Amino acid sequence: MQHFPIYLNMTNRDVLLAGSGEIALAKLRLLARTPARLTLFAPNPEPELADFAAEVGAALLPRMLYANDLHNAALVYAATGDAAEDARIARLARGAGVLLNIVDNLAGSDFITPAIVDRAPVTVAIGTEGAAPVLARAIKSELEERLPESLGTLARAGKIAREAVEALPQGRARRDFWAEYYFETGPHALETTGAGGLGDALHTLLQQHLSQAPEAGRVDLVGAGPGAADLMTLRARKLLDQADVVIHDGLVPQPILELARREAQFIAVGKQGFGPSTPQHRINELMVAHARAGARVVRLKGGDPSIFGRLDDETEALSAAGIDWAITPGITAASAAAACIGTSLTRRGRNQALQLLTAQDVDGLAEQDWKNLSLPDSVAAIYMGKRAARFVQGRLLMHGADPATPVTVVANASRPDQRILPLMLESLATGMADSALKGPAILLLGLAPAAARAELPQLLAELG
Ligand code: SAH
User: Fold this and answer.
1) What is the pLDDT of residues 337-376, one digit of tens each?
2) Which of 325, 357, 390, 435 has minimal Cβ neighbours within 10 Å of its Cβ?
Protein backbone atom coordinates (compact mmCIF):
# COMPACT_ATOMS: atom_id res chain seq x y z
CA MET A 1 0.00 0.00 0.00
CA GLN A 2 2.19 2.80 -1.28
CA HIS A 3 -0.77 5.20 -1.22
CA PHE A 4 -2.66 5.32 2.06
CA PRO A 5 -6.36 6.14 1.76
CA ILE A 6 -7.66 8.76 4.17
CA TYR A 7 -10.73 11.02 4.19
CA LEU A 8 -9.90 14.70 4.49
CA ASN A 9 -12.36 17.07 6.17
CA MET A 10 -12.88 19.78 3.54
CA THR A 11 -14.79 22.23 5.73
CA ASN A 12 -12.97 25.61 5.80
CA ARG A 13 -10.18 24.36 3.60
CA ASP A 14 -8.69 26.16 0.63
CA VAL A 15 -8.20 24.08 -2.44
CA LEU A 16 -6.48 25.56 -5.50
CA LEU A 17 -7.03 24.36 -9.02
CA ALA A 18 -4.91 25.52 -11.99
CA GLY A 19 -6.15 25.04 -15.53
CA SER A 20 -8.40 26.61 -18.13
CA GLY A 21 -9.92 23.67 -19.96
CA GLU A 22 -11.72 20.38 -19.75
CA ILE A 23 -9.28 18.66 -17.37
CA ALA A 24 -9.75 21.43 -14.84
CA LEU A 25 -13.53 21.30 -15.30
CA ALA A 26 -13.64 17.56 -14.52
CA LYS A 27 -11.74 18.13 -11.28
CA LEU A 28 -13.85 21.14 -10.39
CA ARG A 29 -17.03 19.08 -10.75
CA LEU A 30 -15.65 16.61 -8.24
CA LEU A 31 -14.34 19.19 -5.77
CA ALA A 32 -17.59 21.16 -5.91
CA ARG A 33 -19.30 18.29 -4.09
CA THR A 34 -17.24 19.16 -1.00
CA PRO A 35 -17.57 22.23 1.23
CA ALA A 36 -13.99 23.36 0.44
CA ARG A 37 -13.28 26.99 -0.63
CA LEU A 38 -12.26 26.61 -4.24
CA THR A 39 -10.03 28.97 -6.21
CA LEU A 40 -9.50 28.45 -9.88
CA PHE A 41 -6.43 29.89 -11.66
CA ALA A 42 -7.38 30.03 -15.31
CA PRO A 43 -5.61 32.56 -17.58
CA ASN A 44 -7.91 31.70 -20.53
CA PRO A 45 -10.95 29.95 -19.06
CA GLU A 46 -13.20 28.12 -21.48
CA PRO A 47 -16.75 29.43 -21.22
CA GLU A 48 -18.10 26.18 -19.82
CA LEU A 49 -15.51 26.25 -17.04
CA ALA A 50 -16.25 29.88 -16.20
CA ASP A 51 -20.00 29.16 -16.10
CA PHE A 52 -19.60 26.16 -13.86
CA ALA A 53 -17.23 27.99 -11.50
CA ALA A 54 -19.81 30.76 -11.16
CA GLU A 55 -22.59 28.22 -10.61
CA VAL A 56 -20.79 26.47 -7.73
CA GLY A 57 -19.35 29.64 -6.21
CA ALA A 58 -15.68 28.91 -6.96
CA ALA A 59 -13.49 32.01 -7.22
CA LEU A 60 -12.07 32.37 -10.73
CA LEU A 61 -8.83 34.32 -11.16
CA PRO A 62 -7.91 34.87 -14.83
CA ARG A 63 -4.18 34.48 -14.28
CA MET A 64 -1.45 31.96 -13.46
CA LEU A 65 -0.89 30.59 -9.96
CA TYR A 66 2.02 32.15 -8.00
CA ALA A 67 3.87 31.27 -4.81
CA ASN A 68 1.92 33.80 -2.76
CA ASP A 69 -1.36 32.06 -3.58
CA LEU A 70 -0.30 28.96 -1.69
CA HIS A 71 -0.22 30.38 1.84
CA ASN A 72 -3.33 28.80 3.29
CA ALA A 73 -3.89 26.08 0.75
CA ALA A 74 -4.53 22.48 1.83
CA LEU A 75 -4.36 20.95 -1.65
CA VAL A 76 -3.32 22.03 -5.13
CA TYR A 77 -4.45 20.45 -8.36
CA ALA A 78 -2.33 21.16 -11.44
CA ALA A 79 -4.69 20.55 -14.34
CA THR A 80 -3.33 22.83 -17.03
CA GLY A 81 -2.66 20.05 -19.53
CA ASP A 82 0.75 21.65 -20.16
CA ALA A 83 3.61 19.60 -18.70
CA ALA A 84 5.95 22.55 -18.22
CA GLU A 85 3.31 24.66 -16.49
CA ASP A 86 2.22 21.73 -14.29
CA ALA A 87 5.89 21.22 -13.33
CA ARG A 88 6.22 24.90 -12.42
CA ILE A 89 3.17 24.64 -10.13
CA ALA A 90 4.60 21.45 -8.64
CA ARG A 91 7.82 23.28 -7.71
CA LEU A 92 5.85 26.06 -6.06
CA ALA A 93 3.68 23.59 -4.13
CA ARG A 94 6.70 21.62 -2.93
CA GLY A 95 8.38 24.84 -1.82
CA ALA A 96 5.31 25.79 0.19
CA GLY A 97 4.80 22.28 1.59
CA VAL A 98 1.33 21.98 0.09
CA LEU A 99 0.11 18.59 -1.10
CA LEU A 100 -0.05 18.43 -4.86
CA ASN A 101 -1.81 16.45 -7.52
CA ILE A 102 -0.90 16.69 -11.18
CA VAL A 103 -3.83 15.27 -13.07
CA ASP A 104 -2.93 12.02 -14.84
CA ASN A 105 0.66 12.15 -13.59
CA LEU A 106 1.08 9.59 -10.83
CA ALA A 107 4.85 9.93 -10.47
CA GLY A 108 4.70 13.71 -10.21
CA SER A 109 1.90 13.77 -7.60
CA ASP A 110 1.96 13.67 -3.80
CA PHE A 111 -1.55 12.28 -3.67
CA ILE A 112 -3.97 10.79 -6.15
CA THR A 113 -7.73 11.09 -6.35
CA PRO A 114 -9.42 7.71 -6.21
CA ALA A 115 -12.41 6.59 -8.21
CA ILE A 116 -15.33 7.56 -5.97
CA VAL A 117 -18.76 6.07 -5.41
CA ASP A 118 -20.67 8.95 -3.88
CA ARG A 119 -23.59 8.12 -1.64
CA ALA A 120 -22.56 10.82 0.82
CA PRO A 121 -22.14 10.52 3.70
CA VAL A 122 -21.24 7.04 2.52
CA THR A 123 -18.38 7.25 0.04
CA VAL A 124 -16.30 4.44 -1.37
CA ALA A 125 -12.84 5.30 -2.63
CA ILE A 126 -11.22 2.90 -5.10
CA GLY A 127 -7.57 3.16 -5.91
CA THR A 128 -5.17 0.94 -7.82
CA GLU A 129 -2.08 3.15 -7.39
CA GLY A 130 -2.27 3.76 -11.10
CA ALA A 131 -1.82 0.08 -11.90
CA ALA A 132 -5.24 -0.63 -13.35
CA PRO A 133 -7.57 2.31 -13.98
CA VAL A 134 -9.83 0.00 -16.02
CA LEU A 135 -10.25 -2.22 -13.01
CA ALA A 136 -11.05 0.75 -10.77
CA ARG A 137 -13.77 1.85 -13.19
CA ALA A 138 -15.23 -1.65 -13.34
CA ILE A 139 -15.33 -1.90 -9.54
CA LYS A 140 -16.87 1.54 -9.35
CA SER A 141 -19.70 0.73 -11.72
CA GLU A 142 -20.35 -2.57 -9.98
CA LEU A 143 -20.60 -0.81 -6.62
CA GLU A 144 -22.80 1.92 -8.06
CA GLU A 145 -25.25 -0.73 -9.16
CA ARG A 146 -25.11 -2.47 -5.80
CA LEU A 147 -25.45 0.56 -3.53
CA PRO A 148 -28.88 2.13 -3.94
CA GLU A 149 -29.12 5.90 -4.33
CA SER A 150 -31.20 5.91 -1.16
CA LEU A 151 -28.21 4.83 0.90
CA GLY A 152 -27.15 8.45 1.32
CA THR A 153 -30.61 9.42 2.62
CA LEU A 154 -30.60 6.52 5.07
CA ALA A 155 -27.14 7.40 6.30
CA ARG A 156 -27.97 11.09 6.75
CA ALA A 157 -31.05 10.25 8.85
CA GLY A 158 -28.94 7.73 10.75
CA LYS A 159 -26.27 10.31 11.48
CA ILE A 160 -28.83 12.68 13.04
CA ALA A 161 -30.06 9.87 15.31
CA ARG A 162 -26.60 8.73 16.43
CA GLU A 163 -26.77 10.43 19.80
CA ALA A 164 -30.22 9.04 20.63
CA VAL A 165 -29.00 5.56 19.73
CA GLU A 166 -26.26 5.85 22.34
CA ALA A 167 -28.98 4.98 24.85
CA LEU A 168 -28.43 1.39 23.71
CA PRO A 169 -25.49 -0.41 25.28
CA GLN A 170 -22.32 -0.20 23.20
CA GLY A 171 -21.38 -3.18 21.06
CA ARG A 172 -23.78 -5.75 19.74
CA ALA A 173 -27.00 -4.05 20.87
CA ARG A 174 -26.11 -0.98 18.83
CA ARG A 175 -24.83 -2.96 15.88
CA ASP A 176 -28.03 -5.00 15.73
CA PHE A 177 -30.07 -1.81 15.83
CA TRP A 178 -28.13 -0.26 12.93
CA ALA A 179 -28.21 -3.45 10.90
CA GLU A 180 -31.98 -3.60 11.21
CA TYR A 181 -32.30 0.09 10.37
CA TYR A 182 -30.08 0.00 7.28
CA PHE A 183 -31.20 -3.29 5.84
CA GLU A 184 -34.86 -3.60 6.86
CA THR A 185 -36.68 -0.76 8.60
CA GLY A 186 -34.95 2.10 6.74
CA PRO A 187 -35.40 0.84 3.16
CA HIS A 188 -38.97 -0.22 3.99
CA ALA A 189 -39.85 3.21 5.41
CA LEU A 190 -38.30 4.95 2.39
CA GLU A 191 -40.39 2.83 0.07
CA THR A 192 -43.69 3.25 1.89
CA THR A 193 -43.55 6.74 3.40
CA GLY A 194 -40.61 8.38 1.62
CA ALA A 195 -37.77 10.25 3.31
CA GLY A 196 -40.26 12.16 5.48
CA GLY A 197 -41.25 9.03 7.40
CA LEU A 198 -37.71 7.93 8.04
CA GLY A 199 -37.21 9.76 11.34
CA ASP A 200 -40.38 8.28 12.87
CA ALA A 201 -39.51 4.77 11.70
CA LEU A 202 -36.07 5.11 13.19
CA HIS A 203 -37.37 6.21 16.58
CA THR A 204 -40.03 3.50 16.74
CA LEU A 205 -37.33 0.94 16.00
CA LEU A 206 -35.10 2.44 18.68
CA GLN A 207 -37.88 2.18 21.29
CA GLN A 208 -38.34 -1.48 20.35
CA HIS A 209 -34.65 -2.19 20.78
CA LEU A 210 -34.46 -0.28 24.06
CA SER A 211 -37.25 -2.39 25.56
CA GLN A 212 -35.67 -5.72 24.51
CA ALA A 213 -33.84 -7.85 27.08
CA PRO A 214 -30.15 -8.22 26.15
CA GLU A 215 -29.35 -11.34 24.15
CA ALA A 216 -27.42 -14.06 25.96
CA GLY A 217 -23.87 -14.84 24.84
CA ARG A 218 -23.08 -18.01 22.92
CA VAL A 219 -20.20 -19.90 21.38
CA ASP A 220 -19.96 -21.19 17.82
CA LEU A 221 -17.24 -23.73 17.20
CA VAL A 222 -16.41 -23.06 13.59
CA GLY A 223 -14.26 -24.85 11.02
CA ALA A 224 -12.10 -22.39 9.10
CA GLY A 225 -11.10 -24.95 6.48
CA PRO A 226 -7.53 -25.63 5.32
CA GLY A 227 -6.49 -22.02 4.83
CA ALA A 228 -7.91 -20.56 1.61
CA ALA A 229 -10.60 -18.04 2.57
CA ASP A 230 -12.90 -19.20 -0.22
CA LEU A 231 -12.88 -22.73 1.14
CA MET A 232 -14.83 -21.59 4.20
CA THR A 233 -18.55 -22.21 4.36
CA LEU A 234 -20.98 -19.32 4.00
CA ARG A 235 -22.17 -20.00 7.53
CA ALA A 236 -18.63 -19.75 8.88
CA ARG A 237 -18.20 -16.39 7.14
CA LYS A 238 -21.49 -15.11 8.51
CA LEU A 239 -20.68 -16.16 12.05
CA LEU A 240 -17.25 -14.55 11.82
CA ASP A 241 -18.83 -11.37 10.59
CA GLN A 242 -21.15 -11.28 13.61
CA ALA A 243 -18.60 -12.30 16.23
CA ASP A 244 -17.68 -10.06 19.15
CA VAL A 245 -14.80 -12.30 20.16
CA VAL A 246 -12.77 -14.66 17.94
CA ILE A 247 -10.70 -17.27 19.73
CA HIS A 248 -8.55 -18.85 17.04
CA ASP A 249 -5.87 -21.46 16.53
CA GLY A 250 -2.45 -20.66 15.12
CA LEU A 251 -3.42 -22.60 11.97
CA VAL A 252 -5.95 -19.96 10.90
CA PRO A 253 -4.26 -17.54 8.49
CA GLN A 254 -4.62 -13.77 8.54
CA PRO A 255 -6.82 -13.38 5.40
CA ILE A 256 -9.49 -15.45 7.16
CA LEU A 257 -9.24 -13.47 10.40
CA GLU A 258 -9.72 -10.33 8.33
CA LEU A 259 -13.25 -11.50 7.53
CA ALA A 260 -14.22 -10.67 11.10
CA ARG A 261 -15.17 -7.13 12.06
CA ARG A 262 -12.22 -4.92 12.84
CA GLU A 263 -13.62 -4.13 16.29
CA ALA A 264 -13.92 -7.80 17.22
CA GLN A 265 -11.55 -9.00 19.91
CA PHE A 266 -9.05 -11.57 18.64
CA ILE A 267 -7.48 -14.08 20.96
CA ALA A 268 -4.82 -16.43 19.59
CA VAL A 269 -4.60 -19.73 21.40
CA GLY A 270 -2.01 -21.41 19.20
CA LYS A 271 -1.31 -25.05 19.71
CA GLN A 272 1.61 -26.08 17.58
CA GLY A 273 3.00 -29.58 17.48
CA PHE A 274 5.72 -29.64 20.08
CA GLY A 275 5.78 -25.85 20.41
CA PRO A 276 4.25 -23.47 22.94
CA SER A 277 0.53 -23.79 23.52
CA THR A 278 -2.36 -22.41 25.52
CA PRO A 279 -3.55 -25.07 27.99
CA GLN A 280 -6.97 -26.49 27.12
CA HIS A 281 -8.52 -25.45 30.43
CA ARG A 282 -7.49 -21.86 29.72
CA ILE A 283 -9.20 -21.96 26.30
CA ASN A 284 -12.35 -23.32 27.96
CA GLU A 285 -12.24 -20.57 30.59
CA LEU A 286 -11.87 -17.88 27.94
CA MET A 287 -14.87 -19.13 25.95
CA VAL A 288 -17.05 -19.37 29.06
CA ALA A 289 -16.03 -15.97 30.41
CA HIS A 290 -16.71 -14.12 27.16
CA ALA A 291 -20.03 -15.88 26.52
CA ARG A 292 -21.13 -15.12 30.11
CA ALA A 293 -20.37 -11.46 29.49
CA GLY A 294 -22.91 -11.60 26.64
CA ALA A 295 -20.50 -11.89 23.71
CA ARG A 296 -21.03 -13.86 20.55
CA VAL A 297 -17.91 -15.96 20.57
CA VAL A 298 -16.51 -17.76 17.55
CA ARG A 299 -14.07 -20.50 18.43
CA LEU A 300 -12.30 -20.76 15.10
CA LYS A 301 -10.37 -23.93 14.35
CA GLY A 302 -8.33 -24.97 11.33
CA GLY A 303 -9.96 -27.50 9.02
CA ASP A 304 -12.96 -29.24 10.56
CA PRO A 305 -13.43 -28.67 14.29
CA SER A 306 -14.37 -32.29 14.91
CA ILE A 307 -11.06 -33.68 13.64
CA PHE A 308 -8.12 -33.59 16.03
CA GLY A 309 -9.44 -30.38 17.49
CA ARG A 310 -10.23 -31.29 21.13
CA LEU A 311 -13.80 -30.38 20.27
CA ASP A 312 -15.53 -32.47 22.93
CA ASP A 313 -13.36 -30.99 25.70
CA GLU A 314 -14.66 -27.60 24.67
CA THR A 315 -18.33 -28.43 24.15
CA GLU A 316 -18.45 -30.33 27.44
CA ALA A 317 -16.98 -27.34 29.27
CA LEU A 318 -19.56 -25.08 27.64
CA SER A 319 -22.47 -27.38 28.48
CA ALA A 320 -21.24 -27.65 32.06
CA ALA A 321 -21.26 -23.85 32.26
CA GLY A 322 -24.79 -23.73 30.78
CA ILE A 323 -23.69 -21.90 27.64
CA ASP A 324 -25.42 -22.31 24.33
CA TRP A 325 -23.15 -23.64 21.56
CA ALA A 326 -23.24 -25.08 18.05
CA ILE A 327 -20.74 -26.58 15.64
CA THR A 328 -20.14 -25.42 12.06
CA PRO A 329 -18.18 -28.01 10.09
CA GLY A 330 -15.30 -27.15 7.79
CA ILE A 331 -13.18 -28.75 5.09
CA THR A 332 -10.60 -30.93 6.75
CA ALA A 333 -6.93 -31.06 5.70
CA ALA A 334 -7.33 -34.59 4.28
CA SER A 335 -10.01 -33.44 1.82
CA ALA A 336 -8.03 -30.37 0.85
CA ALA A 337 -4.85 -32.40 0.35
CA ALA A 338 -6.64 -35.02 -1.77
CA ALA A 339 -8.06 -32.22 -3.92
CA CYS A 340 -4.55 -30.78 -4.37
CA ILE A 341 -3.21 -34.00 -5.76
CA GLY A 342 -6.29 -34.73 -7.85
CA THR A 343 -7.10 -38.03 -6.14
CA SER A 344 -10.06 -39.43 -4.29
CA LEU A 345 -9.68 -40.59 -0.72
CA THR A 346 -11.70 -43.78 -1.25
CA ARG A 347 -11.94 -45.82 -4.42
CA ARG A 348 -13.91 -48.88 -5.34
CA GLY A 349 -11.60 -51.88 -5.61
CA ARG A 350 -8.72 -50.07 -3.90
CA ASN A 351 -9.75 -48.97 -0.42
CA GLN A 352 -13.24 -49.14 1.02
CA ALA A 353 -12.09 -47.50 4.22
CA LEU A 354 -10.08 -44.42 5.02
CA GLN A 355 -8.37 -43.82 8.32
CA LEU A 356 -7.82 -40.37 9.73
CA LEU A 357 -5.10 -40.65 12.31
CA THR A 358 -2.64 -38.53 14.16
CA ALA A 359 0.97 -39.40 14.57
CA GLN A 360 1.20 -37.62 17.86
CA ASP A 361 -1.05 -37.01 20.81
CA VAL A 362 -0.70 -35.14 24.07
CA ASP A 363 1.90 -37.66 25.26
CA GLY A 364 4.06 -37.46 22.13
CA LEU A 365 4.30 -39.99 19.28
CA ALA A 366 1.13 -42.03 18.97
CA GLU A 367 0.86 -45.79 18.50
CA GLN A 368 -1.64 -47.09 15.95
CA ASP A 369 -2.85 -50.35 14.52
CA TRP A 370 0.31 -50.55 12.40
CA LYS A 371 -0.40 -54.08 11.23
CA ASN A 372 -3.64 -53.06 9.64
CA LEU A 373 -2.10 -49.90 8.18
CA SER A 374 0.72 -51.96 6.64
CA LEU A 375 -1.65 -54.02 4.49
CA PRO A 376 -1.49 -53.35 0.75
CA ASP A 377 -4.04 -50.78 -0.42
CA SER A 378 -4.72 -49.36 3.02
CA VAL A 379 -5.19 -45.60 2.86
CA ALA A 380 -4.73 -43.18 5.72
CA ALA A 381 -4.50 -39.45 6.17
CA ILE A 382 -1.91 -38.86 8.86
CA TYR A 383 -2.32 -35.51 10.62
CA MET A 384 0.50 -33.84 12.53
CA GLY A 385 2.83 -36.25 10.82
CA LYS A 386 5.69 -33.94 9.91
CA ARG A 387 7.93 -34.59 12.86
CA ALA A 388 6.72 -38.15 13.22
CA ALA A 389 7.60 -39.18 9.65
CA ARG A 390 10.57 -41.31 10.69
CA PHE A 391 8.57 -43.00 13.44
CA VAL A 392 5.63 -43.77 11.11
CA GLN A 393 7.99 -45.07 8.43
CA GLY A 394 9.81 -47.34 10.93
CA ARG A 395 6.63 -48.79 12.39
CA LEU A 396 5.04 -49.51 9.01
CA LEU A 397 8.17 -51.17 7.57
CA MET A 398 8.55 -53.20 10.76
CA HIS A 399 5.00 -54.50 10.28
CA GLY A 400 5.71 -55.60 6.73
CA ALA A 401 4.48 -52.69 4.63
CA ASP A 402 5.80 -52.56 1.05
CA PRO A 403 8.67 -50.03 0.92
CA ALA A 404 7.31 -48.88 -2.45
CA THR A 405 3.94 -47.85 -0.94
CA PRO A 406 3.19 -44.30 -2.13
CA VAL A 407 3.09 -41.62 0.56
CA THR A 408 2.25 -38.14 -0.62
CA VAL A 409 3.01 -35.28 1.69
CA VAL A 410 0.98 -32.11 1.19
CA ALA A 411 2.06 -29.00 3.07
CA ASN A 412 -0.06 -25.85 3.31
CA ALA A 413 -2.83 -27.41 1.26
CA SER A 414 -4.97 -24.75 -0.48
CA ARG A 415 -2.64 -21.92 0.52
CA PRO A 416 -0.38 -19.93 -1.81
CA ASP A 417 2.68 -21.76 -0.44
CA GLN A 418 1.19 -25.22 -1.00
CA ARG A 419 3.74 -27.98 -1.68
CA ILE A 420 3.38 -31.58 -2.76
CA LEU A 421 6.01 -34.25 -2.16
CA PRO A 422 5.19 -37.52 -3.94
CA LEU A 423 7.32 -39.94 -1.90
CA MET A 424 7.44 -43.65 -1.19
CA LEU A 425 7.46 -45.23 2.22
CA GLU A 426 11.16 -46.06 1.99
CA SER A 427 12.07 -42.46 1.13
CA LEU A 428 9.56 -40.78 3.48
CA ALA A 429 11.86 -39.66 6.27
CA THR A 430 14.79 -38.58 4.11
CA GLY A 431 12.52 -36.98 1.50
CA MET A 432 10.84 -34.88 4.16
CA ALA A 433 14.04 -33.97 5.93
CA ASP A 434 15.59 -32.85 2.63
CA SER A 435 12.64 -30.76 1.61
CA ALA A 436 12.55 -28.77 4.89
CA LEU A 437 8.79 -28.19 4.66
CA LYS A 438 7.34 -25.20 6.45
CA GLY A 439 3.78 -24.96 7.75
CA PRO A 440 1.22 -27.69 8.49
CA ALA A 441 1.62 -30.88 6.49
CA ILE A 442 -0.44 -34.01 6.12
CA LEU A 443 0.77 -37.46 4.98
CA LEU A 444 -1.45 -39.37 2.59
CA LEU A 445 -0.44 -43.00 3.02
CA GLY A 446 -1.29 -45.21 0.03
CA LEU A 447 -2.07 -42.31 -2.30
CA ALA A 448 -0.01 -40.94 -5.17
CA PRO A 449 -0.85 -37.76 -7.04
CA ALA A 450 -2.85 -38.14 -10.24
CA ALA A 451 -0.10 -38.20 -12.88
CA ALA A 452 -0.81 -34.77 -14.31
CA ARG A 453 -0.55 -33.11 -10.92
CA ALA A 454 2.70 -34.66 -9.73
CA GLU A 455 5.50 -32.20 -9.21
CA LEU A 456 7.97 -34.97 -9.94
CA PRO A 457 10.48 -32.91 -11.91
CA GLN A 458 10.54 -30.31 -9.15
CA LEU A 459 10.93 -33.02 -6.52
CA LEU A 460 13.76 -34.76 -8.33
CA ALA A 461 15.58 -31.47 -8.64
CA GLU A 462 15.05 -30.82 -4.94
CA LEU A 463 16.34 -34.20 -3.93
CA GLY A 464 19.36 -33.71 -6.19
N1 SAH B 1 -8.98 -29.80 12.53
C2 SAH B 1 -7.93 -29.81 11.55
C3 SAH B 1 -6.73 -30.63 11.99
C4 SAH B 1 -6.06 -30.08 13.21
S5 SAH B 1 -4.61 -30.97 13.61
C6 SAH B 1 -8.47 -30.31 10.21
O7 SAH B 1 -9.59 -30.80 10.16
O8 SAH B 1 -7.77 -30.19 9.20
C9 SAH B 1 -3.37 -30.05 12.76
C10 SAH B 1 -2.85 -30.82 11.58
O11 SAH B 1 -3.75 -30.72 10.50
C12 SAH B 1 -1.54 -30.31 11.03
O13 SAH B 1 -0.43 -30.79 11.77
C14 SAH B 1 -1.55 -30.91 9.63
O15 SAH B 1 -1.22 -32.27 9.66
C16 SAH B 1 -3.02 -30.81 9.28
N17 SAH B 1 -3.32 -29.59 8.50
C18 SAH B 1 -4.12 -28.58 8.83
N19 SAH B 1 -4.19 -27.67 7.84
C20 SAH B 1 -3.43 -28.14 6.83
C21 SAH B 1 -3.12 -27.67 5.54
N22 SAH B 1 -3.59 -26.53 5.05
N23 SAH B 1 -2.28 -28.44 4.77
C24 SAH B 1 -1.80 -29.60 5.22
N25 SAH B 1 -2.07 -30.07 6.44
C26 SAH B 1 -2.87 -29.37 7.25
Assistant:
1) 999 999 999 999 889 899 999 988 767 788 889 999 999 9
2) 390
Domains of the chain as residue ranges with CATH: 14-113 (3.40.50.720), 160-211 (no CATH), 218-331 (3.40.1010.10), 335-457 (3.30.950.10)
Note the pTM of the prediction, 2 decimals. Answer: 0.68
Supply the pLDDT for residue 170: 80
In 3-state terms, what secondary structure has residue 195? helix
The set of protein residues with a Cβ atom below 6 angstroms from ligand 1 is 226-227, 251, 301-304, 307-309, 332-333, 336-337, 383-385, 410-415, 440-442
> Beta partners for 328?
222
159 catalytic residue (yes or no) = no
CA gap 421, 410 in Å, rounded: 6
Q: H/E/C letters for each residue in 18-64?
A: ECCCHHHHHHHHHHCCCCCEEEEECCCCCHHHHHHHHHHCCEEECCC
* pLDDT at position 258 over 90: yes
